[in-house]
C-alpha cells in the first residue's frame, strides 16, 4: 500500500505500485498509520522535520475506490467518511508537508494533494481533476471547505469545481495550486525532497507550526473534525510559548 522511510530530517511516504492508488479502506488505513508514525517519530526527534508524500506509477491517486463502492451510496459514504480523518491528520501534523504529484490526482486524490502545505507537479504527464460535476456526484462539505481554503482565486475554484477542468502542471501553477513544476517524476520527487529539506532546516517548533496552519485554515480544519481552541486556550498556549 505505502512505505515510509526517513532521509535525514525528511520523512518520505510513498504510495507503492503501478496501480491507481485508489483510496479505499486499506490504503486510507495504511496512510493514517504512516502519518501517525511520522508524528510519533517527529515528537522524539525534536524541531526540524518535514514530510513528503509521493506515488509510484502513472497516478498520484485516482480518488476514492469507486470499484469497491460500486453503485452503493452507503459504501461511497463510508469512503468519504474514512478519508476525512486522514485529511485531519495531515492538517494537524506538526511539520511542513509537501506533495510530489508525480501522476494524475483526481477527486479524492486531488484533495489528498491539497491537504499538504506545498505541491510540486510533473509537467510531462498527469492532471489535477475534480470529476464530481461530470459524474453527477455532490461534493462532501469538507471537500468544499478544503478547496475553498487552498484555491483562493474565485475563477480558479469555479473552473476546478464547476467546470471540471483538467489542469496540467503549468496551468495549476499559474492558478497558484502548485508551487513548482518539474519535467518528470524523478525530478518532481527530488524537488519535493529538496524543498522539504530546506523547510526542515529551519528547525521550526512543530506544535507552533501546526497551530499556525490550523489558524490559517479554520473552516477546513473544522470541517474535518479538528476542534478549534477557545480564545482562552489560545491565550494560554501563546503565553506558554513566550
TrEMBL record:
Protein EC: 5.3.3.8
Keyword Transport annotated: no
Name this polypeptide is given: Delta(3)-Delta(2)-enoyl-CoA isomerase
Keyword Lipid metabolism: yes
Source organism, top-level taxon: Eukaryota
Catalytic activity: a (3Z)-enoyl-CoA = a 4-saturated (2E)-enoyl-CoA; a (3E)-enoyl-CoA = a 4-saturated (2E)-enoyl-CoA
Enzyme class: isomerase
CDD domains, A to Z: crotonase-like
Recorded GO MF terms: delta(3)-delta(2)-enoyl-CoA isomerase activity
Similarity comment: family membership: Belongs to the enoyl-CoA hydratase/isomerase family.
Keywords tagged on the record: Lipid metabolism
GO biological process: fatty acid beta-oxidation
Pathway: Lipid metabolism; fatty acid beta-oxidation
Gene Ontology CC terms, in alphabetical order: peroxisome
Any one Pfam family match given in the protein's UniProt record, by short name: ECH_1
Transmembrane segments annotated in the record for this chain: none
